[in-house]
Specification:
Elements (H helix, E strand, L loop, with lengths): L14 H5 L8 E2 L2 H6 L13 E4 L3 H14 L3 E4 L14 E4 L7 E4 L4 E4 L5 H9 L3 E2 L12 H7 L12 H4 E7 L5 E3 L5 H8 L1 H16 L1 H10 L11 H5 L3 H8 L9 E8 L1 E2 L3 E9 L2 H6 L1 H6 L4 E6 H5 L19 E9 L5 H11 L10 E3 L2 H12 L1 H8 L5 E8 L5 H14 L6 E5 L4 E8 L4 H21 L18 H5 L1 H14 L30 H4 L20 H16 L5 H17 L6 H5 L6 H12 L2 H12 L1 H22 L1 H15 L29 E4 L2 H5 L12 H11 L4 E2 L11 H4 L4 H18 L7 E3 L2 H8 L7 H9 L2 E3 H9 L9 E6 L3 H5 L3 H11 E5 L13 H4 L1 H7 L1 H8 L5 E4 L2 H11 L4 E2 H8 L8
Parallel strand pairs: 2-4, 3-4, 19-20, 19-21, 21-22, 23-24, 23-25, 25-26
Antiparallel strand pairs: 1-2, 5-6, 6-10, 7-11, 8-9, 8-10, 12-14, 12-15, 13-14, 13-17, 16-18, 17-18
Helix pairs in contact: 7-8, 8-11, 8-21, 18-19, 23-24, 27-33, 28-29, 31-43, 36-38, 38-43
Length: 962
């Protein structure tokens, strides 16, 4: 019998002070905006934590466990928070183990990888790809989820099945028990240490194993259930597969959802990467016909067989690139997306032969579509991967997207799918879609659901009751195949497993966590109504906000994710502010607190780079949302000032150059620290966001006008951005060659005439205005610039080549803000980034006289959005022996002037990629945007320059040997 210690209450207001004795105070988050931001994960549940701790190191984890036991406050560990079943939320202490737990080390020549729980799965795979390997699990969220979540949920995916999942590819773990015991299972003495330190736990594990082996029916049921995908409850197969307590327990940790120990490090065996692919879309008249094709395709070696019912196909049939034949399918039709994979190109013919033989006796409603072309394959996968976002984008405002997964016997998969469809019709979920991993009998369904009133909650509860009966009683399947039990299925574990197995799970939890303080409410020991408790309300805010499904895919791309808020968290806080504002009576104190902190945490430190939209399943650009809110915060006087600046931008350029000259003059006399203090004082006195002076502030650009070239023979107009016209050389950078001159030299050597406009002063892409939400000033400026472009380009005859990538992207996306006449001109002109122009027009004509050694490249976020990163890399490779791009490259967070206003944003955004670059040795550092070059220079400690300087250097004619 376990003796429960008396509860010792800790005053919430004392909590920061108490926790600060364990971790640095700055890593203890207790402000309302911080707690609200972490109250949700990717599920439809919500719990507000008492505190969020950004833990660092095993010693802190042990101290937090001790604190939890002393004060009886629950702990929950969270990394990416992409879990779909509520595993990563708590009303106790939430311990964030993402930002300080990202180390990855490749070992044994790529045969295994050592990882900390915060490492992103996609990043691990990119490091392993060098060795022709990857991790086995391949969840759809792999570019957002962390290895901690992959292990804790026993994630799988489209191809890994039950042989390459986290359970079967695990080599060893370092874990921390709630008692504070730390075990590295790779140690030769690990089992002995485990038994000595935890005699009660290890004896209990052996007792449970003995009971399972003595119960033949239970033993065989465990064997049977793990031949297919199954993540309902704990991994009971560990008691069948292993004998030593250490081996049993470390495999029980896989899929345990952080309820019995903390995984501090894992060593995982990799699997071979299979880059050669043969992909096909097969369409059938019925689900039965589609499901009948799964076994022959699986037996032929198909690595992925994705089943899609008619509603799933209908949800994407209007998307760009989807074959028109899908629109013509009958109501009962279904499809399979099939892919065969191999390691070597020489095996491609065999893949094609295997596929042809597998489908030889099948009947289709349309001819099978197979392809070896990578672009066509991407279009086919877009069909499958576009289903979740398609539902998310069209759902009614105020509803959640629920994605669940079930497993049925493969031989009865068609009947189960049709029965599941009938349940959706019965309960009024007409827009539900069904798809899944066909070769594993693993179905996913997606529904939209409101939890804003009791009737909707009751409808969902009734649906879940029927689904449980269908899966367990009629098909003897699994309620969870790969998403983890969480809160949504915790109340149904016994229904699936039976009393004996569920009792073993309960006893396991009690052995490892006797006080039930580690992530309680998940997997076992929960109420039968846990799946409809602590539900997330989603008030309607505005269209862009309402589309968000809070999946967290955006967060890995966000420059401010380690500083303030992520895009998902910005939206979570916005929703909470709206919900509180609608309450009667309202919590005015809480609203005031959130509004006070929202300005800095959500608006000021958003880089508005739009990179979040590139990862968002429903395409939300939170940066655009931030611009809107910034605009609403401006006074009429501020808007008027912005218009004046836009109207007289020539003077703005002169003032910027003057300020830079004055700052450097003052620095030379008084020192950089003194000037920095002056600018900080000016902020304090005036309350205005003045740029903070720094020792890497650019010198003023020269006002010398370059030769404009012969306009009659010009092949392009070279447009020096206002940044290039105002910000010149950086401290420590050679100052003998202005950027425009370097570009002219490179073009001349390629034999391509370019012209620089004489009246370029006073023009701008408008991004400095749009990013701050000054819409009128932005429209004024961008219309003036497009008007000039029309003249310079000879009414669209010549392309406009922009020398700053951020400005290029701003110009390419400005059409909605143009007047009608300029919209017509815009469509008739070609605006090119210099990277594209140099790569396509100049590089093939240039003679590289000598290559430099290794260079580091920073592809700015605008290049990524314009799909030009590979062209920058090609230029780098043409000029150097090695062109290095960091694996974790991303937005530097400088964001125009954000880096001058809030340097902490750039510092946070560049930590990972800066560390990668600093670890190497390079002859030069290059990019394609002046302000981003400043930001990366700060991160790396070396001056970044325009890639034009690299090209100019390597194409100089070498002096002849005497």
């Amino acid at each position: 019998m376990t003796v429960v210690a008396p509860i010792r209450l800790v005053d919430t207001y004392d909590l920061p002070l108490q926790l600060a004795s364990i971790v640095e105070p700055k890593r203890v988050l207790t402000r309302p905006i911080e707690l609200i931001a972490f109250a949700s994960d990717a599920s439809f549940y919500r719990l507000i934590p008492k505190a969020v701790v950004l833990a660092r190191g095993i010693d802190e984890i042990r101290a937090l466990f001790e604190f939890s036991h002393r004060y009886r406050i629950p702990l929950t560990f969270r990394a990416a928070g992409t879990s779909l079943s509520g595993q990563a939320i708590t009303d106790g202490i939430l311990v964030e183990v993402a930002r300080n737990w990202r180390e990855v080390r490749i070992e044994e020549g790529g045969k295994q990888v050592r990882v900390q729980p915060g490492a992103i799965g996609g990043h691990i795979n990119r490091l392993l790809a060098i060795y022709g390997a990857r991790i086995g699990p391949d969840p759809a969220s792999i570019d957002a989820c962390t290895i901690g979540g992959i292990l804790s949920n026993n994630s799988s995916g489209m191809c890994c099945g039950v042989t390459q999942n986290a359970y079967h590819t695990l080599k060893s773990l370092t874990f921390v028990l709630p008692s504070g015991t730390v075990i590295d299972s790779a140690s030769a003495t690990a089992d002995q240490v485990f038994r000595s330190a935890e005699p009660r736990l290890t004896a209990g594990l052996l007792q449970l194993k003995s009971e399972i082996h003595a119960n033949r029916a239970l033993y065989e049921r465990i064997r049977s259930k793990y031949r297919t995908k199954n993540t309902t409850g704990y991994s009971l197969n560990a008691f069948v597969d292993f004998d030593r307590p250490i081996d049993i327990f470390q495999h029980l940790l896989i899929g345990s959802e952080g309820t019995i120990a903390f995984i501090a490090e894992a060593v995982i065996n990799s699997v071979p990467e299979l880059p050669v692919r043969y992909t096909g879309l097969l369409l059938f008249d019925s689900l039965h016909a589609a499901c009948a094709a799964i076994v022959p395709l699986r037996n032929a070696g198909a690595n992925a067989i994705e089943l899609m019912d008619r509603e799933a196909l209908r949800s994407v049939q209007e998307c760009e690139g989807v074959p028109g034949s899908i629109k013509l399918l009958s109501n009962g039709a279904a499809g399979l997306l099939v892919e065969f994979r191999a390691a070597e190109e020489s095996d491609r013919r065999l893949l094609e032969l295997n596929a042809k033989q597998a489908i030889g006796d099948l009947s289709f409603c349309n001819p099978p579509l197979f392809t070896n072309d990578a672009k066509e394959q991407a279009v086919l996968w877009k069909i499958r991967k576009g289903m979740l976002p398609s539902v998310g984008a069209v759902r009614q405002s105020g509803t959640s997207v629920i994605l669940e997964d079930l497993v049925f016997p493969l031989e009865r998969l068609a009947d189960a799918t049709l029965d599941l469809r009938r349940l959706f019709t019965k309960h009024g979920y007409e827009n539900a879609i069904i798809f899944g991993h066909g070769k594993d009998g693993n179905l996913h369904f997606v529904i939209s659901q409101s939890f804003n009133n009791q009737a909707e909650i009751d409808r969902y509860s009734s649906l879940m009751d029927d689904i449980v009966r269908l899966v367990v009683e009629e098909y003897d399947g699994s309620l969870k195949g790969e998403h983890g039990t969480g809160r949504n299925m915790a109340g149904f574990v016994e229904a699936e497993w039976g009393r004996q197995a569920s009792e073993i799970m309960r006893r396991l939890k009690e052995l490892a966590d006797p006080e039930n303080l580690l992530n309680p409410g998940v997997i076992v020991g929960t109420s039968p109504t846990a799946h409809v408790t602590n539900l997330k309300e989603l008030p309607s805010v505005e269209e862009e906000v309402d589309k968000c499904i809070e999946c967290g895919y955006c967060e890995v791309r966000c420059p401010s994710r380690d500083l303030t808020l992520t895009p998902r968290q910005r939206i979570i806080v916005l929703r909470e502010m709206t919900r509180l504002a609608q309450q009667v009576p309202g919590d005015h104190e809480m609203v005031a607190s959130l509004e006070k902190d929202f300005s800095y945490m959500a608006l000021d430190t958003c880089a508005v780079d739009g990179m979040c939209a590139t990862a968002c399943p429903v395409g939300i650009d939170t940066g655009a949302l931030t611009k809107t809110f910034r605009g609403k915060s401006h006074s009429s006087l501020a808007r008027r000032h912005a218009r004046v600046i836009a109207q007289h931008f020539v003077w703005a350029e002169r003032l910027i150059r003057l300020a830079l000259r004055a700052g450097h003059l003052a620095e030379s006399v008084l020192g950089a620290d003194f000037v920095k203090r002056i600018t900080r004082l000016a902020r304090t006195v005036t309350g205005q966001r003045f740029p903070l002076w720094s020792s890497d502030m650019p010198y003023a650009a020269s006002t010398y006008r370059p030769q404009t070239g012969n306009e009659s023979i010009a092949r392009a107009v070279y447009y020096p951005s206002c940044i290039s016209r105002t910000m010149g050389f950086l401290p420590g950078e050679p100052s003998d060659l202005p950027l425009t001159h370097a570009a002219e030299r490179v073009a001349q050597r390629a034999g391509v005439a370019i012209v620089v406009p004489k009246d370029v002063q006073g023009t701008c892409c408008g991004v400095p205005f749009s990013s701050k939400g000054y819409d009128q000033a932005y429209r004024l400026m961008v219309n003036r610039t497009i008007d000039r472009f029309w003249k310079w380009s000879d009414r669209g005859r010549l392309p406009i080549v922009v020398d700053n990538s951020a400005c290029t992207y701003g110009l390419l996306t400005c059409e909605p803000s143009l007047e009608a006449v300029n919209q017509k001109r815009f469509k008739a002109m070609r605006i090119l980034d210099s990277v594209a122009f140099v790569h396509d027009e100049l590089l093939p004509r240039l003679h590289v006289s000598h290559k430099v050694g290794a260079v580091a490249l920073h592809p700015v976020c605008s290049l990524t959005k314009m799909n030009l990163v590979t062209k920058l890399e090609s230029i780098g490779r043409a000029c150097s022996e090695t062109a290095f791009v960091p694996q974790q490259v991303g937005c530097c967070g400088f964001a125009g002037d954000r880096g001058f206003l809030f340097p902490e944003l750039t510092e946070a955004a560049t930590q990972s990629q800066g560390a990668e670059v600093r670890a190497g040795s390079f002859e030069g550092y290059f990019s394609s945007s002046r302000t981003c070059e400043v930001g990366m220079g700060r991160a790396v400690g070396h001056v970044y320059r325009s890639y034009f300087y690299l090209l100019e250097e390597v194409t100089r004619e070498q002096p002849r040997a005497q």
